[in-house]
Write a structure and sequence with these properties.
This protein has ten helices and 15 strands. The chain is α/β, with parallel strands linked by helices. Bound molecules: nicotinamide-adenine-dinucleotide.
């Protein structure tokens, strides 16, 4: 039986990844600074600990010989967290410390393979100005110019893991995720990302009302459903390819179109009011040529399919919250 260590197992992608690994027959240890908010862990063992603390990292890697490490723990959030500038120092400090610690422990304990979740946020901002034409092949990452400190930290950590591969023989696999969404992710509180925030606003709005969208809503993105993200992660880990490789959809939509889809699921008549807010780049689309070439696979599920499931889950959360507040 293979043994996997999942860091960030109390989070959205980590929580789903634990379930996926269990379904494949792995023994899994999950680690996070907090328990999962929306579902009990599927991990065989869950350790609550702060990965900024090297002693904790040593402890969670020291007693078992792991076949695979999935390092997803990070200080992260949507545009409302990453682009205001207020969290830049903590984001960089927290995530870089976690990665420095975990790369070192992976080397010391000879973990066979390491997966690291990087982000589309590493790409230079000047190639993401056209909302209709913003394909991001992996090789345009340099010269680097990410639009956030979150992106700079991700780029640093990509390089860190690759340096450990080069100098210490650690086998690493790096993916750049592009807007992953699905049920059991953060949907309120300020760290939620666009699909969850929009689904929440639509679910909470009264029929005939309005929802607020940051900016003019014509900024474009691609959104990938969680199951397809995990399919990509597992295929990458089972391959000989280190990456970095994009794991994202190439179905480009504007934020207005995303909102229209969610409004469509609700059956309500809702208007959209555009307000000022943190935005990020104008356009961003995953280029999937490399993943297709290296893994013989690319995500294909239409956005509407996963968004419907996510909308239904968020509607339930909004209802539960409203009932709790009565
Ligand atoms: P998430 O915030 O739900 O999960 C991250 C987890 O890391 C959280 O549960 C958090 O508690 C944990 N964590 C943070 N600091 C910690 C610490 N000091 N010690 C232990 N645990 C700590 O985010 P997610 O959406 O599941 O993202 C997982 C990974 O994928 C992150 O590295 C993120 O940067 C990356 N990523 C995600 C997306 C996306 O669209 N969700 C896009 C690009 C990259």
């Amino acid at each position: 039986m293979k043994r996997a260590l999942v860091c960030g197992a109390g989070g959205f992608i980590g929580g789903h990844l634990v379930k996926r690994l269990k379904s494949e027959g792995y023994w899994v240890r999950g680690v996070d600074i907090k328990y999962h908010e929306y579902s009990p862990t599927a991990a065989d063992e869950f350790i609550c600990g702060d990965l900024r603390d090297q002693g904790v990292c040593r402890k969670i890697t020291g007693d078992i010989c792991f076949d695979e490490l999935y390092q997803l723990a990070a200080d992260m959030g949507g545009a409302g967290y990453i682009f205001t500038g207020q969290h830049d120092a903590v984001v960089m400090h927290n995530s870089a410390t976690i990665n420095l610690n975990m790369a070192e422990e992976a080397k010391n304990t000879k973990i066979k393979k390491v997966f690291y979740s990087s982000s589309a946020c590493i790409y230079p901002q000047q190639v993401q100005v056209d909302p209709r034409n913003s394909l991001l092949p992996e090789d345009i990452a340099y010269p680097a110019n990410p639009d956030s400190e979150y992106g700079w930290e991700k780029l640093f950590s990509e390089r860190l893991y690759l340096a450990y591969q080069r100098n210490y023989g650690l086998e690493v696999h790096l993916a750049r995720f592009h807007n992953i969404f699905g049920p059991q992710g953060t949907w309120d509180g300020g760290k939620e990302k666009a699909p969850a925030a929009i689904c929440r606003k639509v679910a909470a709005a009264p029929d005939g009302g309005q929802i607020e969208i940051w900016g003019d809503g014509q900024q474009t993105r691609t959104f990938l459903y969680i199951d397809e993200c995990l399919e990509g992660v597992r295929r990458l880990m089972d391959s000989a390819f280190s990456g970095p490789v994009n794991i994202g959809s190439d179905e480009l939509v504007s934020i207005n179109q995303l909102a229209e889809l969610a409004i469509g699921f609700s059956g309500k008549k809702l208007g959209i009011r555009h307000i000022d807010g943190p935005l990020g780049v104008r356009g961003r689309c995953s280029d999937n040529a490399l993943i297709e070439k290296k893994l013989g696979w690319r995500p294909r599920q239409p956005l509407v399919q996963g968004l419907k499931v996510t909308y239904q889950w968020i509607t339930e959360q909004v209802r539960k919250n409203e009932q709790g507040n009565k």
